[in-house]
Each structure stands twice: as C-alpha cells, then as structure tokens.
Fold this sequence. Notes:
With about 250 residues, the protein is of the alpha/beta class. The chain has two domains: about 1-80 and about 165-249, Rossmann fold; about 90-165, no CATH class. Helix content is about 35%, strand content about 25%. The protein has ten helices and ten strands. The chain has helices spanning about 45-50, 75-80, 95-105, 110-115, 120-130, 150-160, 180-190, 205-210, 230-235, 235-240, and strands spanning about 5-15, 15-30, 30-35, 60-65, 65, 80-85, 165-170, 195-200, 215-220, 220-225. The chain has a six-stranded mixed β-sheet with strand order 6-7-8-3-9-10, sandwiched between helices. A four-stranded antiparallel β-sheet has the order 2-1-4-5, covered by helices on one side. A hairpin with a 2-residue loop joins β1 and β2.
Amino acid sequence: xxxxxxxRDLHKRFDxxxxxxxxxxxxxxxxxxxxxxxxxxxxxxxxxxxxGRLKPSSGxxxxxxxxxxxxxxxxxxxxxxxxxxxxxxxxxxxxxxxNLEVAYSRQVNxxxxxxxxxxxxxxxRLDEVSNMVALxxxxxxxxxxxxxGETQWLEIGMVLMQEPRLLLLDEPIAGMTEAEIEKTAxxxxxxxxxxxLIVVEHDMGFVRExxxxxxxxxxxxxxxxxxxxxxxxxxxxxxxxxxxxxEVA
Length: 249
C-alpha cells in the first residue's frame, strides 16, 4: 500500500499555547486509522490542520505527494479530502435525497440545487451512496425526522457523494445505540474498500473492532502507533490514556 497522507514536523501555536508540537505521521492508502488520546491531546486541531480549517505555524501536510498547507479549506476538499464533524450538519427541512443532491453538486445554495438540471452521474452516485449508508428507503423523508443514527449516516453519505479519497470522521458513533454502532462499523469497513479513513474515537471497543492502525496523541505529539494489540500493551499509552477515566475530546 502506498502513502496517501504524509505529515512532517507539524506545529501549531495559538499565541503562547503550543498545541501541536513536531507531529509527524504517515497514513497508508485504503487503511482505517483511529486517532485516540486524552482531552487536550490535539486531535481536533490536527484534523483542522489536515483539512485547512486552520493553518500550521510550520511543517508540512502532503496528500498524494502534493503540499496542502497553502491551500484553502475548499481547495483541499476539492482535492479529495472529506470531513464529517461530530455534530451532523444536514439540512433538516430537506429530504434525504435533496441533502445528497446538494452535497453532490457542491453548490453553496441548497435551493439553487433543488431546481437545477441533474448531473448525468448524480442519480447513479445517489443510488450507490444511499444503499451504502442504508437510507435507500428513506430518501423522501425530511432529514429532521431521521433518528440520530440515520442523521449521522446521512452526513457520512453527503461526504461520500463528493467521492473523497481521504475521509476524516470525528466520533461517528457518539450517542448511537449498540445496533447503530455495529451498522456503522460495517459501513466504515465498506468505505475502506475505496477510500482511506481517519477516525477520531474514544470508544476503545469500537476502535478495536474497526481499526487497521491506531495513532495515540499526547500533548500535541505522537505517543505511539501500531495495531490495537500493540497499543494496548504499551505501558506509555496505559499511563496517559488507557489507564485513566478521561474521555477524548
């Protein structure tokens, strides 16, 4: 497998607060990596730096060999990096189908999209994605009427409509039932067949079930990386994360 994401000596400072401190990471193509760590480890900031939401103080983020740090958030998204935030951002007054159509078109105004001519490839992609996220029978339902789990899957589907090569997800199972969690695990394994995933998650049972590689952050640095059994056996990880009752933010 070839490298899809290369992060080198990344730093981020907010005035005197040094959040990311010389962080480096390689992510292999079509792997599912879980990013874990205690509160304040820098996980969200790292995701913001990868997607262009924040600019680094110094360092490099390369995606398929191309430097990303000088690009805007929209430019990075167009290069193939998609992101799902912890709190779903869907258009509650629109149907599931309309939400997916808006995401496919990448237009800002959802109402413009509702009245435009359909892209020739949109219906095919919409059918594929709605089946993948198990919403094929809910396409005419307003998004505001969906269950919590369905809303999470809809937002994942909206990101998938843009056919990302790298997908970042922030705590995708927060608030889900056990059945929804299992369904989400199957969904992420399916996505991994065609894309690379980085998942920020605090539920170590879920991490154990889905991860190829686990990356542990601590105080803005890379503490450990490897398969879950190696991570769980690492005394440093147990000391700063697994052995505490802290939740990941």
